[in-house]
UniProtKB/TrEMBL annotation:
Organism: Bacteroides faecalis
Domain HTH tetR-type: 4-64
Transmembrane segments annotated in the record for this chain: none
Residues of the signal peptide: none
Keywords, ordered alphabetically: DNA-binding
InterPro entries: Homeodomain-like_sf, HTH-type_Tx_Regulator, HTH_TetR
PROSITE patterns named in the record: HTH_TETR_2
The protein's name: TetR family transcriptional regulator
Alphabetized Pfam families for the sequence: TetR_N
Domain of life: Bacteria
DNA-binding region residue numbers: 27-46
GO molecular-function term, one example from the UniProt record: DNA binding
Amino acid sequence: MTVSKTKAKLVDVARQLFAKMGVENTTMNDIALASKKGRRTLYTYFKSKDEIYLAVVESELDILSDMMKRVAEKDISPDEKMLEMIYTRLDAVKEVVYRNGTLRANFFRDIWRVEKVRKRFDAKEIQLFKAVLLEGQAKGVFQIDDVEMTAELVHYCVKGVEVPYIRGQIGAHLDDETRNRYVSNIVFGALHRTKI
């Protein structure tokens, strides 16, 4: 097994154990046993459980980044793409947090630690938003004065509603059509979308 495959396996096993038993209740020995690797192999890749926890978060963010990239590359209009990227992002983060069970508590408790890992993801996401905004501007769909600033603002707005969205505090009582209308009005009002 290659180095990257071994590390990926350790991260996946750790993710499953953290979800099932909780980060606090999972030991490095548990991870080594469940992955059928020795403790020495585990410590070759990760100095501590904290380090492997952050690697789990990073691997989940890489999956999310790939999902966002696939949406950005779709052959649909930039305005549709922008909305789909926002919903993909929010729904995927919600799904990751819930799928990983007890990681949910750690995610909210350790949000600042998670933030350090997210820096690379955030930069990629801003670039994806920027690419869609530039495409929309080139096609006359959006009228934007500063694409870079707008991409950053869209990113931080979406990031800002992430926790309330995961907790069901935003739009939980709305049907999809009503929710989409509210989101569209806010996003497209800010981007000065022209009618096509």
